[in-house]
Design goal:
Largest sheet of chain C: 3 strands, antiparallel
Number of domains of chain B: 1
CATH class of chain B: Alpha Beta
Number of helices of chain B: 10
CATH topology of the domain at 243-484 in chain C: MetI-like fold
CATH architecture of chain B: 3-Layer(aba) Sandwich
Number of helices of chain C: 21
Oligomer: heterotrimer
Radius of gyration of chain B: 19 Å
Largest sheet of chain B: 10 strands, mixed
CATH superfamily of the domain at 243-484 in chain C: MetI-like
Distance between the termini of chain C: 69 Å
Radius of gyration of chain C: 32 Å
Helix content of chain C: 55-70%
Chains: A mainly alpha (about 325), B alpha/beta (about 270), C mainly alpha (about 475)
CATH topology of chain B: Rossmann fold
Order of helices and strands of chain C: HEHHHHHEHHHEHHHHHHHHHHHH
Largest interface: A-C, 92 and 88 residues
Chain lengths: ~325, ~270, ~475
Amino acid sequence: MEAKLELNRKTALLTRAIPQKAAYSDGGTINLSRRIRPGEEFIHTILLICGAISIITTVGIVLVLLKESLLFFGSGELDLVEFLTDTVWQPVIGRFGIMPLVTATLMTSLIAMLVAVPLGLGAAIYLSEYAKPKARAILKPTLEMLAGVPTVVYGFFAILTVSPFLRNMLGQDTVQFQNMASAGLVMGFMIVPTIASMSEDALSAVPRSLREASYGLGGTRLETTLKVVVPAALSGILAAFILGVSRAVGETMIVALAAGSGPNLTFNPFAAAETMTGHIVRISGGEISYNSIDYNSLFAIGLTLFLVTIVLNLISQYVTNRFRESYE
Amino acid sequence: MTLSNDRDSKAVEIKHLDVYYGSRLAVKDVSLPVYTHKITAFIGPSGCGKSTVLRSINRMNDLIPSARVEGEVLYHDKNLYGADVDAVEVRRRIGMVFQKPNPFPKSIYDNVAYGPRLLGVNKREVLDEIVEMSLKQSFLWDEVKTDLKKSGLALSGGQQQRLCIARTLAVEPEIILMDEPCSALDPIATQRIEELMRELVSTYTIVIVTHNMQQATRVSDYTAFYSIRKEGDDTHEHRWGVLVEYGETQQLFEQPQQEETADYISGRFG
Amino acid sequence: MTTHMPDDSAFKKQLAVRNSRSARWQMFFLAATSAGIVMLAILLMSILNQVFGLVAVYQLADPNTLVNGNPVVAASAPDLANVLKDNLTKGKMQALLLNTVIGKDVDRALLSGGAITQIPTLKVVPADLTTKGFTELTPDDLSALLAANLTSTQLEAIVLEQIVKQEVLQSWNFIDSVFNRGAVEQTVQDRIAGVGLSPTLSADQQKEAKDQWQNATIEWRSWLNIDLLEKSMSATATDAGVRGALVGSIWVLTLTMGIAAPLGIGAAIYLEEYARDSNYRSKWIQRFNTVIEINIRNLAGVPSIIYGLLGLAIFARALGFFTSGQVFTGEEATGRTILTASLTLALVILPVIIINAQEAIRAVPKSIREASYGLGATKWQTVSQQVIPAALPGILTGIILSLSRAVGETAPLIVVGAAVFLSQDPSGPFSAFTTLPIQIFNWAALPSDQFRNLSSAAIIILLIMLLALNAIAIVVRQRYSRRLQG
């Protein structure tokens, strides 16, 4: 009886408190019509715009790079063929051949990959196949700290320690103060965590059953790893390598400090040579005047850089996705 | 208690309901009434679409991007899938209790007050009253009244489920849908929930999906038995759910009209 | 039946070889893992090696006995002004008053004729000087005016700069300073004897240099000190500090976060909660959403220097009227400002914030959303009251981690036009700017040892900022996991 009273009180209370409650308790018609909620629509629009910012950014990058590059090629000083094939970049005498910048970028990236691929893959294999959970819990975050160090610090380290070390080892005459080798070496260490963590993901995604099959046939841990697990994860590992190359190509501060401060067409790793990114930083540092050919040339280099990295990233993503499908 | 008294008063009437997920048919041609102030139980083997039908009563299926519904669900003479119907309006009148207790990561008080607050009830004393009433109705009040500030997640499983029921009651729905509300609970907690359902049915209309036939016989007034239909060979098999039989619970269990129903309730199925 | 398998002894022999090969490779894998960590340790040590060490300091006067036998520190303003008078010519004193108190922009007519009380910037004038003109002031008068208008701290700095003129002749790194003290002493002796001085110096300069070395004191110095934080840009290493750069970094980071965080969270909410909504089944919208997703992943891989070019062309140049503050002040100014830097950095870290926030939102259990919708909540009510609070710690962690990337980001900021020299600290969104990593870059590129020491000290500050941000992220994450457990 008391409970019933309480319920009645409650109904009265809610009738007052919650709008339209009365409507359905006495069987009257109720209104379910779609309500217009201007607040909801407004918020939806705002959020859509936030999402669209990324598209605007990409479009902005492409338009800016294209527009300034067109001004550069439209200046009458050079054409696209000359830009791609001339071996001298010397704006003062009107020579704009991107070759020396590209070769320097390739050299530093190559040296970086020579360091990063064996170390990164080795670390990935150790962490995924060998390390006990406790060791892994310490090693992995410590290794990832390498990726968190600002690149300007790496650049400083390259000229402070690595370059003098190389010069002491190989002779002051052989190794220049700024050189592609020290920039590349340090950059390699910077890329190790990227390759290690992506490759490790790929290795861990290999089903246990494959490993067990190999052990079941009497394979050692090394044989299982190198002959079964790594081949099965190969495309994922490949994607990691490609992403690593893309990082190396786009890396700026290390090469700006350590690789060289002037375009130089050379394949000698101990010589100084300026990369595409290093050149952009050196020329734009300081008050560059708009509308000069120097200003426009930066965007032509930028466009080249953008195209190279975007292609590398797309390939890496494509390979990763295909890899994922094969196990899902 | 005579069942026939309320025969004419249907809280919901489902007519020729088909549910698709993408292009795949999940439930085909379900029609049944849900009577006011009665408990209707949906039973059947897993994959028979009983949960899908339940979730289409308050348009919960809208939340699954690929879901599509054909047919009618009539509520107060209105098709819930009519062009002009607002899903939010529907859900505040037809509440839902889920399989796994899912309290918000908030205090017990805030869990219960969440619904009323959505509807613009912000006065402290009114909220206090609603929270107390709802927790009393769900028999949780005595266990939690001293620490309403405690996190809802700190309660036991059975208490969490009763908190979820209290949370649903707080917005005063007309119908409560329960999707296997006891499947994650121990027998004692299950018994408490079942008792609670029998209490609540005097005020609310309840539809419950259950895996447990004993539970259906214990608590429900009407029962709908669903089953699976198949088509195609082993490699390309299509499966969908159908309603096999619907009736008063006692009758359905004692004198099933369909052989399939009889097989299922006697344990001879699948 | 014959077997193709090796017999028992052959197998055993072969197995030993296989096992030892396995062990060797395991060593290599472990070495590969450790190599990076060893490298990190070497990096830290070689930087710390530059931060502490011996220096050869030369000063014209001893600051500890300069003020009547008492130290410059804690001396009163009149005493310090007297020291200036005793050591400087009248012309120098006039110039000092002009530069530090009156200001160079003063109307020259006020200096050549009329009483000094007419000069508006000269606030305090002692009673006995009110009738004098600027040119009639004696050194004593000038000293009195300096003492009356400047604080003792300001005068102390002037005394150090004008009279003590401290100069670091050479610095040694920590390892040499501790383990190779003999070589340090030898260098000093050599320099006094004139060995190892720059060959380009003239005979007079050689003599001066030898004298300086003769009078130099060798002392320990930590390049990481309070002075470094208090001083700003300077062409001489002893006067240089990171204050302007640090203030710039803090401004840029604050604005970057203010711009990127709401945009990033908004985009993540859109992609996770709205884009998949069945109410928006239109093919066009669906395709648009897919494009956004792919695009964000690609943007995360674009080199940051490209963003710099975008910022240079759009924010600094095309929108220069806005980013320079011209629309607000009407003054013509360049668009190479804090605001431009922040907008550019915001775009750099936006993809990272979005991807992290998406993950945090995806981790919110579906049951919480269902419970909320089941009670009749609208989409935004569910998102704002259930999803965002539950995902917030994860979102915050992502934002903090992306900030720690922004802290060290250098290339795009150089490209958009960081100031080569800052005459005053950045004071708002429309100020010219430099940041800590840019300061490090500029110092690192200089040949002098002392700037290398400064660079290293600045790196330590930068690394401390980074560690602090990461520590905050860890704390946020741990509190989060505790909360989920109830």
